[in-house]
Amino acid sequence: TYAPKLILLDISDINCIRDVAKEILNCYGCVDILINNASMKVKGAVQSISLELDKKIMDANYFGPITLTKAILPNMISRRTGQIVLINSIQGKIGIPFRAAYAASKHAAVGFFDCLRAEMEEFDISVSTVNPTFICSYHRQSAPGNWEASIWK
After folding, report:
1. Which residue, among 40, 63, 116, has the nearest Cα to 85 in the 3D structure?
2. pTM of the model
3. pLDDT digit string (tens) for 5-26?
4. Is 138 a catalytic residue?
5. Separation between Cα atoms, residue 97 and residue 101, nearest integer Å
6. pLDDT score of 39
7. Sign of CA dihedral 88, 92, 93, 98
8. Catalytically annotated residue among 2, 28, 62, 102
9. Each residue's pLDDT tens digit, 87-132
């Protein structure tokens, strides 16, 4: 058994993910199960959400999980074992009004992990995607017109 080690990671900060994955692998030698369960969302009309905020949501919900997965994957492939899980959203399958950036990022993640599942079969690495319906999560109520402050984490 291993003593737990707390490693902080901002999944939307793509530049630090590889270093964190390296730290984990150096500490424990391998990752048997990787559960990608971080998300960021914002509610608002397409024309009201800035492109910068769209990109931030895409970083957290798409590029973050795939960057972490790609950093851990070579170790799993070399061991020919492992399990990768994406906790996604039903909005990765259907879009609803006022959630365009969120739904787009979740659709992209589903596509990536569906492809990954097929590619990893030969290495006996299991890839699963879970698409729950709506859940309660931490939310900061924003002032009207302050979309940056309305991000859900």
Report:
1. 116
2. 0.84
3. 888 888 889 999 999 999 999 9
4. no
5. 10
6. 87
7. positive
8. 102
9. 998 777 888 899 999 899 999 999 999 999 999 999 999 999 998 7
Residue 51: which residues within 8 A CB-CB, separation 6 or more?
A: none
56-60 long-range Cβ contacts below 8 angstroms, 24+ apart = 56/12, 56/151, 57/101, 57/102, 57/105, 57/151, 58/101, 58/104, 58/105, 58/108, 59/12, 59/13, 59/14, 60/11, 60/12, 60/105
Using CA atoms, how far apart are residues 149 and 54, in angstroms rounded to an integer?
Answer: 14
Q: How far apart are CA 66 and CA 64, in angstroms?
A: 6
Show the beta-strand stretches assigned E in the chain. Answer: 33-36, 82-87, 125-130
